[in-house]
Amino acid sequence: MTTLRLALGLVLALPVITSCAISGAGPVEAPPAGISAASWRPAAGSDEGGLWMEADRMEAELRTSALLIRDSPLTAHVTAVTCRVAGPRCDQVRVYVVRTARANAAMAPNGALLLYTGLLLRTENEAQLAYVLSHEVAHYLRRHGIQQWRDLWYRARMGRILDAGGLGSVAWLGAPAVSRAQEREADEVALDLMSRAGYEARDAETFLEAWLAEESAAGPDRAAGFTAAHPPTAERLAVARAAVAEARRAGAPKGAAPTDSHRRAMAPFLGGFLRDELRRREFGASLLLADRLLASGADAAVVQSFRGEIYRLRGEPDDDARAVAALTLALATGQAPAEAHRSLGLVHMRRGEASLARAAFTRYLEERPDAEDRRMIESYLARPEREMP
Known about the structure:
Blueprint: H1 4-13, H2 47-62, E1 68-69, H3 73-86, E2 94-98, E3 105-107, E4 112-116, H4 117-120, H5 126-141, H6 144-164, H7 168-172, H8 181-196, H9 201-218, H10 233-249, H11 261-266, H12 270-278, H13 283-295, H14 300-314, H15 319-332, H16 339-350, H17 354-367, H18 374-382
Parallel strand pairs: 2-4
Antiparallel strand pairs: 1-2, 3-4
């Protein structure tokens, strides 16, 4: 059936940029500033017009997805930051916040911007969010989607022509599936958009530093995500650092002081997004994320509960003790989610601390009488203490 997966399949394919558009492929149309996407469309018979029609169809399906976060202060916040960096083309961009742990974002050629919550979770403040969104808006402003489509079409056509002469396989050698030239351009434009909107490149630098640290923690087998089609993170970081240095030399004024608006918008969703993050089972990267969240002032009860669950699931030497310490800190706030008691009970049970496990499980069921795993927890409580592992 046609679901969000299909919709994302098209939209995500579009901004994965190939090499620059082939000379002579035809002009790339761009909406004039100040005219909304509803008021302007590429010519119906053009290749870009056809691409927009397909993107529109998939966008309509996306609007009905159960994974879409709707009508919340969070979506309003993300939309407001998008408008700030898009400037006079604000009305041409439509933002969709999609709940998935994958750390990515995408821009369709018709102005549909998808922000995955796995990437949103990694923005510590509004300025870092502005960097992520500016990069996607840059793809739209430079019309990278249609350039990619035209390039792929050209390559496919040339492949068929050469294949007729027995050279098809040779024609594709050295023709990469994706090119990073336009991703580099999008980064450069993003830094300019940030600056024009009153944000500092230093926040882009901080974001990329953190991402590079997560990559290192996750190791070489990290699943493709935010960096899949981009230049190496170290290269992107060098570009951001150069922009910071140039701004300092030029005596550029500092951006607006950070506010709590980003943290407030994220707060109601933080626990759910962290539960999604746990399913990735990239524990080293998740621990770095937890440290960043704590340093940025995120809810300590929620984040310490998350840290405790990471240690419980990872199960390396001394992780049980680390889990108990983190969960105890979370519970000491008096605001920890009920699941912190369950996690603590599971750790105590694994350590053979039956009475402590019973107390934690009992408290969990008191706070969450409708828990989906109630029968399993009750089965633990029904065991004689000597039979608890």
